[in-house]
């Protein structure tokens, strides 16, 4: 009997030892995997670093590329497209104007009743619909007919408080947020698509003529008087309220900037200067490139797998369409190489764009001590249950790294433009150009969901701009001009109509 008891005790002890050994080895494995994930994170953080010295190189490169893009067609990756907008709205525009806005995930139709200097915007209404994904890669006829159809039904619901001018067709400003070579204010050919659109037969077409044809078929009496990039629209919208607005930046699905340039500086346009001596330039800065940009192997694979590899390098490090996917790719590597989320890689994590920028903004906003929201996002998006605090911290830091890099690069871009127009504080006050006579305040109008809704991104961007500008930052205001781009196109249509009547 005694022997049996002793035998059982020995077996139990052995089992306990084995269990303890398994636990220890499991813990060691987890610890070593976490260690692996951490060292991967450190490596990634180093590759993404944007110390101020590097940002200054990017500021300089931006200013240099701007010059090059203005001198000759194809002189730079920055297209620096003349917008043919040589006069921005002044506030005295009156009447009913429409705008249609195509450029991201949603299409918008908008109307605005303007009452002149005193009453400004009397009434405004808009409608937004998601663009069916198949139209983003379909035919030009289908895409423009969809816009015309939505616009027609919106016009049909024009109610009280909107008064069209008697006997006149309604004017539309067409915000088309892709690179377009304009030939006049109301015409221009599409150069290439960005942001996941690929309607191949539209490339090289006059987008105004294409939309106008579809509108005519659908019936409403309307004419497109202005073709406007969203960055140009945001500049017009910003200027309507504040005459110090000189630059507009879009940080949304895509990214871009527009600014007021001296007509004489646009040498590629020859010597035909607009009367005002100024011209708004659509920079198409999403395609900016410089060897100083902190590009990592993760960015390279992302780029290779997009619809436009080799294009929009700056945009792919900055804008809302891509930030979430950069984070996803880093997490995926950590899941595959360091089993960050357990022995299995979450299947959905293999899907491109499965983590959106709104998700990383939620993660980034989590200030709780146990990072509960980080855990919730991982559970809701990828079905990962019960993450440890250590894992959540790693995920949080990946988001922080990607967003901080994007925000600081955007700030460097803005300071690059300020440098080009002599407003970064490194020039003497009396630059003496017709555009910048006495250099008072310079306002940068910001538009786009990324800037509007991602508070940590916004804060990083503002801080980096202040760091780069030093003392000059007191003369530069970077402010949100919500929805400026849509209304801006209507305002430009109004300002053209006003000048037509003069
Ligand atoms: C387009 C620009 C646009 C920007 C923001 C970019 O992808 O090329 O034309 O202004 O997105 O919408």
UniProtKB/TrEMBL annotation:
**Listed pathway(s):** Carbohydrate degradation; glycolysis; D-glyceraldehyde 3-phosphate and glycerone phosphate from D-glucose: step 1/4; Carbohydrate metabolism; hexose metabolism
Q: Indicate whether Cytoplasm appears among the record's keywords.
A: no
Q: Where are the transmembrane segments?
A: none
Q: Which residues form the Hexokinase N-terminal domain?
A: 43-240
Give the EC number(s) listed in the UniProt record.
2.7.1.-
Q: Which InterPro entries match?
A: ATPase_NBD, Hexokinase, Hexokinase_BS, Hexokinase_C, Hexokinase_N
Q: Which UniProt keywords apply?
A: ATP-binding, Glycolysis, Kinase, Nucleotide-binding, Transferase
Domain named Hexokinase C-terminal: residues: 247-494
Reactions accelerated catalytically: a D-hexose + ATP = a D-hexose 6-phosphate + ADP + H(+); D-fructose + ATP = D-fructose 6-phosphate + ADP + H(+)
| Keyword presence, Kinase | yes
Family from the record: Belongs to the hexokinase family.
| Name the UniProt record assigns to this protein | Phosphotransferase
């Amino acid at each position: 009997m005694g022997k049996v008891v002793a035998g059982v005790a020995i077996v139990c002890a052995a089992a306990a030892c084995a269990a303890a050994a398994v636990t220890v080895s499991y813990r060691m494995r987890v610890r070593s995997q976490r260690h692996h994930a951490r060292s991967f994170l450190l490596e990634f953080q180093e590759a993404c670093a944007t110390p101020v010295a590097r940002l200054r190189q990017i500021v300089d490169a931006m200013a240099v590329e701007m010059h090059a893009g203005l001198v000759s067609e194809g002189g730079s990756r920055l297209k620096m497209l003349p917008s043919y907008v040589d006069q921005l709205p002044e506030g005295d525009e009156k009447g009913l104007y429409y705008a249609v806005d195509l450029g991201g995930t949603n299409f918008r139709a908008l109307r605005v009743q303007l009452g002149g200097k005193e009453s400004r915007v009397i009434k405004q209404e808009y409608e937004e619909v998601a663009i069916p994904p198949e139209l983003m890669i379909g035919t030009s006829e289908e895409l423009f007919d969809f816009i015309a159809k939505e616009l027609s039904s919106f016009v049909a619901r024009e109610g009280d408080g909107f008064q069209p001018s008697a006997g006149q067709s309604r004017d539309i400003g067409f915000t088309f947020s892709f690179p377009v070579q304009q030939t006049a204010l109301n015409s221009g050919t599409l150069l290439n698509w960005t942001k996941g659109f690929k309607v191949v037969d539209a490339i090289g077409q006059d987008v105004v003529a294409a939309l106008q044809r579809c509108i005519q078929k659908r019936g409403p009496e309307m004419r497109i008087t202005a073709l406007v990039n969203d960055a140009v629209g945001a500049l017009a919208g910003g200027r309507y309220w504040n005459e110090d607005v000189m630059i507009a930046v879009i940080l949304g699905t895509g990214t871009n900037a527009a600014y007021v340039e001296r007509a004489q500086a646009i040498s590629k346009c020859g010597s035909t200067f607009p009367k005002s001596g100024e011209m708004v330039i659509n920079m198409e800065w999403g395609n900016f490139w410089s060897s100083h940009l902190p590009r990592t192997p993760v960015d390279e694979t992302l780029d290779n797998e997009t619809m436009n590899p080799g294009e929009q390098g700056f945009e792919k490090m900055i804008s809302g369409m891509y930030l979430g996917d950069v984070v996803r790719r880093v997490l995926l590597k950590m899941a595959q190489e360091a089993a960050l989320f357990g022995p299995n890689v979450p299947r959905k994590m293999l899907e491109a764009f499965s983590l959106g920028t709104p998700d990383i903004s939620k993660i980034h906003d989590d200030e709780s001590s146990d990072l509960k929201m980080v855990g919730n996002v991982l559970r809701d998006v990828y079905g990962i249950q019960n993450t440890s605090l250590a894992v959540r911290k790693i995920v949080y830091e990946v988001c922080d790294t990607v967003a901080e890099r994007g925000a600081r690069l955007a700030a460097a871009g803005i300071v690059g433009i300020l440098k080009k127009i002599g407003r970064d504080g490194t020039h003497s006050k009396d630059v003496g150009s017709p555009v910048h006579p006495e250099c008072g305040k310079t306002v940068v109008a910001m538009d786009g969901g990324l800037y509007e809704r991602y508070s940590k991104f916004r804060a990083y961007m503002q801080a980096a701009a202040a760091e780069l500008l030093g003392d000059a930052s007191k003369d530069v205001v970077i402010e949100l001009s919500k929805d400026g781009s849509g209304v801006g196109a209507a305002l430009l249509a109004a300002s053209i109509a006003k000048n037509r009547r003069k």
